[in-house]
């Protein structure tokens, strides 16, 4: 019983205090056992059998304790290092977030500056035309030459309409509100075509609308802007006599009925330099620069749940609008 107590004490000391303390206690116990052995009976083999197990207990227990202490230190160091890294990471995230906000603000300012500059050019042309025509009118009226006054007034009206289209497109950019109604799309096109014929001389239309699809859920105001913008874009390099082709037909895609509207001009070609980015605001390539009319078209068609694509080559240009038939 007394001897077993050595094992318990040495084992506990080795685990709790480490290998050195365990070996020291094993050595002390060995000396004590040797002393008792010599005093009682000098049996060397018996003493060896009693002493060796003490070291056998102390050594692995102490080694385990040392490893536990070592890994505890490593774990603590890793924990401290991890906390430090987390603090650094949090700091870096805040710095990145701050830089990102600065970049966003810079990009916003850049976009606003570019938009303002481009819009000033877009608005300047009709305004200068109106101002120039007004000066001519003023001079002719003062000179009493009023025989051509109707011609100049008509030109002012046309430039005013162009200005109104530009301003309307600007308003459409920020207006995401949709008012859907069942519209007679054939009648809608008839009205738009009539307005174009009044405004532009020698402009012809070849229309072939699908009579089976008369009523479509659309926002009348916004969809009218779409058609006006598409036709206007096809008339940028208008010839003496131009024909705009319009046709519509149904198509089933993934069990969904789709109305396809194609609007084309066989005499107009979009430069390849801007074709792929034609729906981006103020896209430019070579001597050609576009405004915001076609980006507005894409935005409105997207709000209708549809798509718009364009193809252009030596055979002309065609816009294809796809709308869900609800």
TrEMBL record:
It catalyses: ATP + protein L-histidine = ADP + protein N-phospho-L-histidine. InterPro entries: HATPase_C_sf, HATPase_dom, His_kinase_dom, HisK_dim/P_dom, HisK_dim/P_sf, Sensor_HK_Regulatory, Sig_transdc_His_kin-like_C. Keywords: Coiled coil, Kinase, Membrane, Phosphoprotein, Transferase, Transmembrane, Transmembrane helix, Two-component regulatory system. Residues 118-326 form the Histidine kinase domain. Its EC number is 2.7.13.3. The keyword Kinase applies. It comes from Desulfurella amilsii. It holds the Pfam family HATPase_c. The keyword Membrane applies. This is histidine kinase. The chain crosses the membrane at residues 6-35, 47-70. GO terms for molecular function: phosphorelay sensor kinase activity. SMART domains: HATPase_c, HisKA. Residues 75-109 form a coiled coil.
């Amino acid at each position: 019983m007394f001897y077993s107590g050595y094992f318990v004490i040495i084992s506990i000391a080795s685990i709790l205090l480490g290998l050195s303390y365990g070996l020291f206690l094993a050595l002390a116990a060995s000396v004590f056992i040797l002393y008792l052995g010599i005093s009682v009976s000098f049996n060397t083999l018996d003493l060896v059998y009693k002493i060796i197990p003490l070291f056998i207990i102390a050594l692995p227990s102490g080694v385990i304790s040392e490893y536990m202490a070592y890994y505890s230190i490593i774990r603590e160091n890793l924990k401290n290092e991890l906390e430090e890294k987390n603090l650094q990471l949090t700091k870096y995230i805040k710095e990145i977030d701050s830089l990102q906000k600065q970049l966003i603000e810079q990009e916003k300012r850049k976009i606003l500056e570019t938009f303002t500059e481009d819009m000033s050019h877009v608005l300047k042309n009709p305004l200068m035309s109106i101002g120039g025509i007004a000066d001519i009118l003023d001079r002719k009226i003062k000179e009493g030459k009023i025989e051509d006054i109707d011609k100049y007034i008509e030109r002012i009206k046309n430039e005013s309409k162009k200005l109104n289209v530009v301003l309307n497109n600007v308003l459409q950019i920020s207006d995401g509100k949709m008012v859907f109604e069942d519209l007679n799309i054939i009648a809608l096109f008839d009205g738009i075509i009539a307005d174009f014929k009044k405004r532009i001389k020698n402009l012809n239309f070849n229309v072939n609308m699908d009579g089976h699809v008369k009523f479509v859920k659309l926002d009348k105001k916004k969809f009218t802007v779409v058609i006006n913008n598409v036709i206007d874009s096809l008339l940028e390099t208008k010839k003496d006599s131009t024909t705009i082709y319009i046709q519509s037909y149904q198509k089933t895609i993934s069990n969904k009925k789709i109305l396809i509207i194609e609007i084309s001009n066989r005499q107009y070609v979009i430069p390849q330099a801007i074709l792929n980015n034609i729906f981006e605001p103020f896209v430019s390539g070579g001597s050609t620069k576009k405004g915001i009319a076609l980006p507005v078209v894409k935005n409105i068609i997207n709000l209708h749940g549809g798509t718009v694509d364009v193809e252009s080559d030596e055979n002309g240009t065609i816009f294809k609008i796809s709308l869900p038939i609800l």
